[in-house]
Design goal:
The chain is mostly helical. The protein has 2 domains: 1-110, Serine Threonine Protein Phosphatase 5, Tetratricopeptide repeat; 150-250, no CATH class. It has helices spanning 23-37, 41-54, 62-75, 79-92, 97-109, 113-126, 131-148, 152-168, 172-175, 177-195, 200-214, 238-246. The two termini are 22 Å apart. The model is unreliable at 1-15 and 211-228 (pLDDT under 50).
Length: 250
């Protein structure tokens, strides 16, 4: 299984002009975008800060400026500042998938997979076909599992998002062939272990410890069983997330 690794790359959302802004704000915004494109992230964040000073406090265009500010901070390695900028943008306009997506990325960088999962789910509600959100969410679920304990329900939703990601981005397994192999192998191992009398949780734990951690697959005989039944959606119930947040074990 691919180890959950996150790299926050520069992704610019279409930066539309600021029609309600005065000239100073618009100039600062344009400079910020140019600095972002040039990889000059400190200068970009300073320009977006100037733009925010010039914009009225109730101007809805502040959401876009704050999002770009979050990108500048994130790419400069300032995850705390990035998360705060994305949150401020979301408070102004909660229906922008990119803001939710990049807040999720930033939270994972801060070691907060539970909160990140909630943001990825929000992004998917706004844009169900977002490959980036599915990619982030399966990795967030994997990180939750590693931190709080292995659970079959969590694993099934992790697999759900891998499947959806591959459906949306068919080339994904070519980049990460371990994902394709993971789908086939986990179905086989879980079914075999459960047939031998192990609980689903024991089966999943044994699978992860042998196949994912040591690289040595479990000994199994016979043909692989039929496909593992995945849930209808990848949303982990809120009570499950709440329980995870309160306990170190599932």
């Amino acid at each position: 299984m691919r180890s959950p690794v996150l790299t926050l790359c520069l992704v610019l959302v279409s930066a539309s002009p600021l029609p309600a802004a005065d000239r100073a704000a618009e100039t600062a915004f344009d400079e910020g975008v140019q600095f972002l494109e040039a990889g000059r992230f400190d200068e970009a964040s300073a320009a977006f800060d100037r733009c925010l000073v010039e914009l009225p406090a109730n101007d809805p265009e502040r959401a876009l400026v704050l999002f770009q500010l979050g990108l500048a901070h994130a790419n400069a390695g300032r995850s705390a500042e990035a998360a705060e900028a994305f949150r401020r943008s979301i408070r102004i306009d909660p229906d922008v998938p990119a803001s939710r997506l990049f807040l999720g990325h930033t939270l994972r960088l801060q070691g907060e997979p539970l909160e990140a999962a909630g943001e990825y789910l929000a992004a998917l509600r706004l844009d169900p076909g977002s490959a980036r959100a599915h990619d982030g969410l399966w990795q967030a679920y994997a990180e939750i599992s590693e931190r709080y304990g292995h659970d079959r329900e969590l694993a099934l939703r992790e697999l759900f998002h891998i499947v959806r990601l591959v459906e949306i981005e068919p080339g994904y397994p070519k980049v990460f062939p371990a994902v394709r192999d993971e789908l086939r192998y986990v179905q086989h191992v879980l079914k075999r272990l459960e047939a031998a009398g192990a609980t689903p949780e024991q089966a999943l734990r044994a699978y992860r410890q042998t196949a994912a951690f040591t690289g040595e697959p479990l000994e199994t005989d016979g043909a692989p069983p039929g496909p593992l039944a995945l849930p209808e959606d990848g949303i982990l119930p809120s009570d499950k997330l709440a329980a995870l947040a309160k306990s170190q074990t599932l």
